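WARN  no MSA supplied for this record, continuing single-sequence
INFO  ligand: cobalt (II) ion
INFO  echoing inputs
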Amino acid sequence: MRTVRRVIRGRNTQDGAGVKLRRVFANQLTEELDPFLMLDAFDSKDPQDYVAGFPWHPHRGIETVTYLISGLVEHGDSLGNKGEITSGSCQWMTAGNGIIHQEMPKPSEHMLGLQLWVNLPRDKKMIDPVYRDLTEKEIAAVEEPGRTVKILAGDYAGRQGPVEGITIKPTFLDIDLQPNRDFAWEPQDGATVFAYVFTGSGTFAPDDSDEHGQGDAVLWEGSGGIQVRAGANGLRMLLCAGMPLKEPIAWGGPIVMNTQEELKQAFAQLDDGTFLKQG
Ligand code: CO
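INFO  complex generated
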């Protein structure tokens, strides 16, 4: 069985034009979390916390995965792409060689969701951008005794999630556990596996009785399966697994490359207007 390596508590902060969010991790545990770079979580019933949004900003060398349990985010980019991320849907965006976009949350009763940054391998950092919009309908929901498991990527119980062709072979499961019920699963060998708790609490290994809850991320280590048991109020979590890239990281805000030289080039291109691939 895998055991709990660490619990990551994150901190409340602001980003974009003043969006209040929980920065669960970024920049400090890149080796342990490889291929996952950053996780921001949103949980607010006050639109003033988030309507300022994330106005125009660039990305290169990464993928951003935005998943909303509830809420609404409008998206637009410099290539003319436009869309909405609605309750229960997910946008898996491969920035590749570069996009400049904005992500603007709109008022809703409860904005509950997250954005995860996934690193791209060296040979994919400069591919053309790709959008994958996963509607709630496309995301299979498996009903089992005591739990509902939504499959955004990877496979579970013989069902396949809609995200394909990603180097890290991701598994993304949104798991809703009823009180005191279990979830067990076996990730692929060598994968980095963590869970982020949206609501409720639970234990994350059979021999570890410490409960972790809302706003915590739990990172496993070792090999074999994982076992989670919900506490008295149930547990809603996103379970993420992916194969580490084990490549050097040069990180400059929204741009993550392999070398300082590549970073310098990206920022020079932003300055002189040649950042986006022409035509
Ligand atoms: Co962005």
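Helices lie at 30-33, 260-272.
INFO  checksum written, moving to next record
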